[in-house]
Design a protein that fits this description.
131 residues; mainly beta; Nucleoside Triphosphate Pyrophosphohydrolase; eight-stranded mixed sheet
Length: 131
């Protein structure tokens, strides 16, 4: 049986002061109702950085500046594997305030309280780097 390579997915850990933004997935999508670091799939021929900027513009209507690239890792779901490409970001100067175009809610969460949100399973390993 041939296994598919993991799907590359970017995510933004958007930091403002000592808070990190989480976005709640819509109930009708995979992992509906869970909180996540916003982002999405990298399209064919697209760099991870370009995908991050595109996804954040589509999902949140904001512009970020990448501060740090964290090591990628693979997470296996029952429906397939993703290679998560995490970026620590901050809102760019002059960026509009993030707005949940595709999510049901946004929250700016203190680092010490991140563990109290029910995160998408692939995002959970990032907590160790953030707390």
């Amino acid at each position: 049986m041939e296994t598919k390579p993991p799907v590359p997915v970017v995510c933004a850990i958007i930091v403002r002061e000592d808070r990190i933004m989480l976005a709640r997935r819509p109930p009708d999508k995979k992992l509906g109702g869970l909180w996540e670091f916003p982002g999405g799939k990298v399209e064919l021929g697209e760099t991870a950085e370009a995908a991050l900027h595109r996804e954040l513009h589509e999902e949140l209507g904001c512009v970020v500046r990448i501060v740090q690239t964290l090591p990628p890792f693979v997470h296996d779901y029952s429906w397939g594997s993703i290679e998560l490409l995490p970026f620590v970001c901050e809102l760019a100067v002059g960026s509009p305030e993030p707005h949940p175009h595709e999510h049901t809610a946004l929250a700016w969460v203190e680092r010490s309280a991140l563990h109290s949100y029910e995160l998408a399973p692939a995002d959970v390993p990032l907590l160790k780097a953030l707390i």
